[in-house]
Design brief:
By secondary structure, the chain is of the alpha/beta class. It is built from three helices and five strands. Helix 1 links the parallel strand 2 and strand 3.
Amino acid sequence: MDLILDTVLQDGIATVICRGRVRHGATARHFRGWIGNELSRCRRVVVDLGGVTQMDARGLGMLAVLIRQAGTPRGRLVVARTAGRISYLLRLTGLDALVKCVPSAAFRDLPEGEPAGHVARG
């Protein structure tokens, strides 16, 4: 399965639900573009990786770019539902130290930080 992305907006937080493989080529660029777009319009974005079956070096690189794009505060980009191999790769690369990782994508389970909400563009 290729990469399928959906966004759910709730209480001003964009949750990007990822399913499939984030790998070299079009899927990694699609991953970065989609989440980057959400970062440009929302104060907080949750990237739900629970449905990701594979993430290669390019996918991890795109996640690193997004972490840098999110900037501060640290809770602006949150990675949720990492398990197994994806969790291992985040620890191995040190990305887990640069982004908040939470076990659930549920709004009530998100860490405290900057208040969430839509940023109005004028």
